[in-house]
């Protein structure tokens, strides 16, 4: 999602009373529709966990302070907003697709790798998980998620054993990386590593690497003037043809068309989004 994030048009801090009341009412109405719930306020003090909840219209109805800070917002500024209001469209595209899959009951997202901008404007790699929020009758009324910086996940048991391999992928995806090499970095055989990776991360090493490269290519296409062939080399593809084939297969659009689409309207509403 997450998620990552460029500056959008910052709303005025001088909200009138009606606007504030409307946002707070949105949150209160959503929370009242939920079934038995964990005390979400306990997550507010966690600085390395970015927690959020959206309703079925994908509007933010709850989030902790860390998540607001990630999007460069404070207090209730995010209430009622969507990803489209705070992030460039080339990043929102994936957030939206993941949200809709969860809201339709077709998926529970587990540790999906995403490119997100930090509070200082630099980019980093995060993993995001999303699950449906149910009302007392078992109906989906929203989506809840957590996003965490991969570099901060060394203390998590299910990532600890694979941390050296994951760090290598994130830092060196611009070159050929074999499963054997990754397995050796955590003292496992290739078959053991593949099984453990899929169990703990939710996908195969090859698929994970492909997704990281594709995310990086999307970012370069949308935010730089680098040629498509240069983007291919910088993100670990053997050549432009390889990038184009993978891009079309997984995104349904060519790198050239993707660049034209998101360079023209980087945040989906015609506003220029500084990176």
Q: Gist?
A:
The protein is of the alpha+beta class. The chain is built from 12 helices and 5 strands.
Can you walk me through this structure?
The chain is globular and about 55 Å long. Strand 1 and strand 2 form a beta hairpin. The two termini are 17 Å apart. Residues 1-11 and 265-275 have low confidence and may be disordered. It is built from twelve helices and five strands. Strands 2-1-5-4-3 form a five-stranded antiparallel beta sheet, sandwiched between helices. The chain is of the alpha+beta class and 275 residues long.
Spatial shape? globular
Write the element-wise H/E pattern from the N-terminal end onward. Answer: HEEHHHEEEHHHHHHHH
Helix content: 40-55%
Strand tally is 5
- Percent in strands: 5-15%
Contiguous uncertain segments of 5+ residues? 1-11, 265-275
Radius of gyration: 19 Å
**Helix- and strand-based class?**
alpha+beta
What is the multimeric organization of the chains shown?
single chain
Q: What would the average pLDDT be, to the nearest integer?
A: 79
Cα distance spanning the termini: 17 Å
The main sheet comes to: 5 strands, antiparallel
Q: How are the strands of the biggest sheet laid out side by side?
A: 2-1-5-4-3
Count of helices? 12
Topology (elements, then pairings):
Blueprint: H1 17-33, E1 50-55, E2 60-63, H2 65-70, H3 83-86, H4 89-103, E3 109-117, E4 123-134, E5 140-149, H5 157-160, H6 163-172, H7 179-185, H8 190-201, H9 205-223, H10 228-234, H11 240-251, H12 255-264
Antiparallel strand pairs: 1-2, 1-5, 3-4, 4-5
Helix pairs in contact: 7-8, 9-12, 10-11
